[in-house]
Write a structure and sequence with these properties.
By secondary structure, the protein is of the alpha/beta class. It has 17 helices and 10 strands. Helix 13 packs across helix 14, helix 15 crosses helix 17 and helix 16 crosses helix 17. The longest helix has 23 residues. The model has no long low-confidence stretch (mean pLDDT about 95).
Length: about 375
């Protein structure tokens, strides 16, 4: 744990991941679609926002709680759904979930996770959400939803920005796929990263556990995005959404929304909240950044509908900025996965760094509580 204690930022963990992971695996996690315009804007648009702090307020006990529906969560964090986590480290899904749920942070399991719905539910005690990619086979979609309900997942997250797999040029060049199809290049990367290789061999080659047998031919050497994309329901429409809403009796979030009009229509059609996201810059290259889309979505929905945001969040100050512009909670993906390079302890350190940053940022901004911040904090 000593070396992890010296980590002071998510960027430190990103650097650690760059050193410890084969280049092709690091670029799969870190990269985005196309020219990575949206990926870069996600960071740049957070970084250009400036705050106007207040003074002479009692900030001796900063309150990090946030409200989602009638629930009070102890932190403003949520873990985004991520597929293929075991490429970073076997058991990474469970390591992230355990570190998160120990802090009361909801963990969202991806349809394309390398841990199954059932195994995750047995492995952790804490808030679990399930994210649904809408696949062509609606009977299979219903099976996934039923499994999540049966195993106690409290919230369904329906992703709507994956009509096809984004063109991730780095993955195409690197030949990253699941199952892994080792090339001479991959073998060399494995030899030069022996600790990573030994863990992968011991843990077994990762599979998409929730869709075993569904994705069809695995011999084509498709990239992960292309293989998943070929099974998605590109015709997914409003009637389909209403059908999923009818299946699921619990809370339902819709993820991948950037247009304010779409957000309002989804709430009218039964969504309980909106997750503003451009898929971390991994889908439509040239899409607006999530933080730039957020104010219009908040304006369209009013104050009562919960809004989550992801894509580009790396610091506690990003979380404060998102809160000031209308987000009820902020979700992290890559930041947690960089931490998973150091196992569960690494993820725990990432989460604690972010929460410490939020607490300190509230103090320095003169804000006693996250719930009290609003647009007037933004310059």
């Amino acid at each position: 744990m000593g070396s992890l204690d010296r980590m002071v930022s998510v960027e430190d963990f990103r650097s650690l991941a760059r050193r410890r992971l084969p280049k092709s695996i690091f670029e799969f996690v870190d990269g985005g679609a196309g020219q990575e315009l949206t990926l870069n804007d996600n960071r740049a648009d957070f970084e250009r926002i400036r705050l106007v702090p207040r003074v002479l307020t009692d900030v001796s006990r900063p309150d990090l709680t946030t409200s989602l529906w009638s629930q009070t969560l102890p932190t403003p964090l949520v873990i985004s759904p991520m597929g293929s986590c075991a490429l970073v480290r076997p058991g990474a899904d469970i390591a992230i979930a355990r570190a998160a749920t120990a802090r009361g942070i909801p963990y969202t399991l991806s349809t394309m996770a390398t841990t199954s719905i059932e195994r995750m539910a047995r492995a952790v005690e804490g808030p679990l959400w399930f994210q649904l990619y809408v696949l062509k086979d609606f009977d299979f979609n219903r099976q996934l939803v039923r499994r999540a309900e049966e195993f106690g997942y409290s919230t369904l997250v329906v992703t709507v920005d994956l009509q096809a797999g984004g063109k991730r040029e780095k993955d195409l060049r690197n030949g990253i796929s699941i199952p892994l199809r080792p090339s001479p290049r991959h073998l060399w990367e494995g030899l030069t990263h022996p600790a990573w290789s030994l863990r992968l061999l011991h843990g077994g080659l990762p599979q998409f556990e929730n869709v075993r047998g569904y994705l069809g031919d695995t011999s084509a050497g498709l990239t992960i995005a292309a293989r998943v994309g070929s099974n998605l329901h590109a015709g997914f429409g409003w009637d389909d959404f209403r059908q999923i809403r009818d299946w699921w009796k619990g809370r339902l979030l819709v993820k991948g929304v950037l247009h304010a009009g779409d957000a309002a229509s989804l709430v009218a059609a039964g969504a309980d909240g909106i997750w503003v996201s451009n898929h971390g810059g991994r889908q439509l290259d040239g899409a607006i950044s999530s933080i730039d889309a957020l104010p219009a979505v908040r304006h369209a929905l009013g104050a009562e509908v919960p809004i989550l945001i992801d894509s580009g969040i790396r610091t506690g100050m990003d979380i404060i900025k998102a809160g000031a512009l209308g987000a009820s909670a902020a979700a992290i993906g890559r930041a947690a996965l960089f931490g998973a390079v150091g196992g569960e302890a690494g993820v725990a350190r990432v989460l604690d760094i972010l929460l410490e940053d939020v607490a300190n940022g509230l103090k320095l901004a003169g804000m006693p509580s996250l719930n009290q911040i609003g647009p007037d904090l933004i310059a």
